[in-house]
Amino acid sequence: MTTTYTLSKASPAKTRADAVVVGVLQSDKGPVLAPGGEDISAAFGRKLRPMLSSLGVTGKAGEAVRVPTAGTLNAPVLLLVGLGAKVDRVSVRRAAGVAARTVRNDASVALALPADDADLVAAATLGFRLGGYTFTTYRSESKDDSPADLVVLSPLARDEAVRTAFDEARVVADAVATTRDWVNEPPGQFTPELFADAVTAGHARLTKGRGAPQVTLEVMDQDRLAQLGCGGILGVGAGSDAPPRLVKISYEPPAATTHLALVGKGITFDSGGLTIKPSSSMGTMKSDMAGAAAVIQATFAIAALGLPIRVTTWAPMAENMVSGSSIRPGDVLTIRGGRTVEVLNTDAEGRLVLADALVLAGEEEPDLVVDVATLTGHMVLALGDKVCGVLGTDDVVEQVLDAGRRAGEAAWPMPIPEEMSERIRSSKVADLAQHDWVRWGGGLYAAAFLREFTEGRPWAHLDIAGPSFNSGGPFGDWTSGGTGFGVATLVELARALATPDADPAGSGD
Q1: Catalytic residue from among 351, 406, 451, 495
Q2: What is the DSSP letter of 34?
Q3: Could you tell me which of 289, 42, 312 has the C-alpha nearest to residue 186?
Q4: What is the pLDDT of residue 509?
Q5: N or C: which end of the chain has fewer CB within 10 A?
Q6: Angle between the 160-184 and 290-305 helix axes, to the nearest 10 degrees?
Q7: Longest alpha-carbon distance in the chain
Q8: Are 484 and 297 in contact (CB under 8 A)?
């Protein structure tokens, strides 16, 4: 079922729906209804506080309590969702996600979370769409019990900026949802060729019809990769009978003055190659293409929103498998441009495919380059499974962190210590060593390796190994499986760069 979204200025207490959702804040004096619930507070009057107390409502994040209204409201059910101690984009988005999973049997829902500015309206809209996400492609019996109608209530519903934010949030939400779909696909049904086919189909939908954005797509097969000298992509893909691909997407609106290059790791399944992973670690390795999925869908969203920025996106796709033709520890690969790399760990394959793509991206002389990859377990050990590490040129890293804060995606800056440059040059037979077996600093080593292929351009690397896939239960607007992490951050980065006073390289010039 496709949910119809509308934006309305109507009173929450008077809106006709099967359920009305209101936020609850924690406070020193106990739980209180958040902004957006004033009419509901007035409708219940003095009965509200004892009702909240008797139901054990606290307002803590993640809390959801359904209350029959017994005619007090026009909706038969009041859903109270916890916001925690404050109202901001993150708390509203997460509360909306919790609400979406709690109202599955309600045909119509009115969302009366705090929505007194454009950012909060966008957060509520995005959170509800993503919190209610399901992946049912391979279920023999699947029931879509999402609401048929959702009304987002805001006192500023007629404001042009608010309506724009509402519309744009749905575009971004759809891009995140499709990223989740791709990440959740079984790896046997999403080989590099099939991944490229899915991108081709998405491109066709995006560019269909009058007024559609002008976006070009090129899919390069193994013969073309050989012509380009992409030894990293070809080397990683050599062990699989599903040959590699490289997808290039170009969006160049006439008003663009800034050129952003995006690069995403697209390993559709990672067995570890001959440096094989433990079997318990392979179950989520279908998600090793989450970086490529994120940069592709972010590019499609940027184009759909008509942001005036040039974007060129490179997505190297390969399957890292075990066979007689797999690359071996000790092999030397030649990356696009001629640099040689000694392979010492075939389970550190992502940096090899990214190296080729980073060189190709740089050859078009973009203003800045951002790569997104599920790159290292070291970053998960450092930051946990909900925070992405950001490394690279200091000013570009700060731009990405700012974009992540606006998008509500958690990120943290990490360094590239100078000694890493020595470690990556430790090979006795090649220009660079792809890996070393020192137990610490692996995520920093990987970023130092990638930096070698940026030719000193303004660049940031997002290691999303942790937050790209949720192996646990639902959390806020995250559901189990692929999260679509990174899409919203990249859209916000492009939005900031597209403004006339943006300094894309962060140089202050």
Answers
A1: 351
A2: P
A3: 289
A4: 39
A5: C
A6: 150
A7: 79
A8: yes
The whole-number pLDDT of residue 141 equals 79
pLDDT at 502: 45
CB atoms within 10 A of CB 189: 12
Q: Which residues contact 128 (CB under 8 A, 6 or more apart)?
A: 96, 97, 99, 100, 111, 150, 152, 477
Concerning whether 351 is annotated as a catalytic residue, the answer is yes
Structure tokens at 438: 């020192």
| Three-state secondary structure call for residue 448 | helix
Is pLDDT of 7 > 50?
A: yes
Q: Which of 277, 339, 386, 423 is catalytic?
A: 277
Q: How far apart are CA 386 and CA 32, in angstroms?
A: 29
Please spell the DSSP secondary structure of 110-164, one letter per residue.
Answer: EEESS-SSHHHHHHHHHHHHHHT----TT-SS----S-SEEEEE-TTTT-HHHHH
pLDDT at position 144, please? Answer: 73
DSSP code of residue 385: S
- 410-427: average pLDDT: 97
Confidence of residue 293 (pLDDT cuts 50, 70, 90): very high
Per the DSSP assignment, residues forming a β-bridge with 318 are 267
Q: Residue 143's pLDDT is what? A: 72
Q: What is the chain's mean pLDDT, rounded? A: 96
Q: How far apart are the first and last CA of the chain?
A: 51
By C-alpha distance, which of 190, 144, 217 is closest to 289? Answer: 190
